[in-house]
Amino acid sequence: MPTFVAVxxxxxxxxxxxxxPQLDVPAGARVASxxxxxxxxxxxxxxxxxxVAQRPDAVARHYRAALGPRYATAQLxxxxxxxxxxxxxxxxxxxxxxxxxxTEALVSIADAREARQAVGRPLGFNLPAASVxxxxxxxxxxxxxxxxxxxxxxHAITTNIDVFTRELAARGMHADGPPLRRSAAEHVQFYxxxxxxxxxxxxxxxxxxxxxxxxxxxx
Length: 219
Description:
Number of helices: 3
CATH topology of the largest domain: TATA-Binding Protein
CATH class of the largest domain: Alpha Beta
Radius of gyration: 19 Å
Number of strands: 14
Structural class: alpha+beta
Oligomer: single chain
Number of domains: 2
């Protein structure tokens, strides 16, 4: 079974464009950096994971001051979300407690202009009929290219497996051993090719199927 590296979360791009807005981090914060470039649905993003040895309300005060007077607030079950449109960018700060004196702030900045231009772009991947792309994340991390697709539809698990297996075969990846898990509600399969690997997770619930496909290619 191939070792799968989770490279599609908590990523901080390192390429720099002067026009991108920046938010100062709280004093004493630790910034976790994974990845170099991220695209969400074809639009570039920057994401920072900031860990602070402070209470969430203190971290929220810091980011409210950093955003200035005009921002939106949403209180979710486990986190506070602050958001703001600034020029051609959209900033989101998600703040949640991790422990009694440890808070995580996930800061994402999206290029809204390129996001508009990316609308309707070809996916480059054949999907089962009437599928909906719920998420499409691409990352480039020091010679390792990754892509994660999350797709929903009403087709059976077997239909989704057949379509995605065929698409992976066209990219030189084939099943690496038997499925890791297989039932009427879930199917997990690893695939492998030369300098590339993939994990396919297909889940069925309440008449709907959701597929999560993660592909990694090394140079």
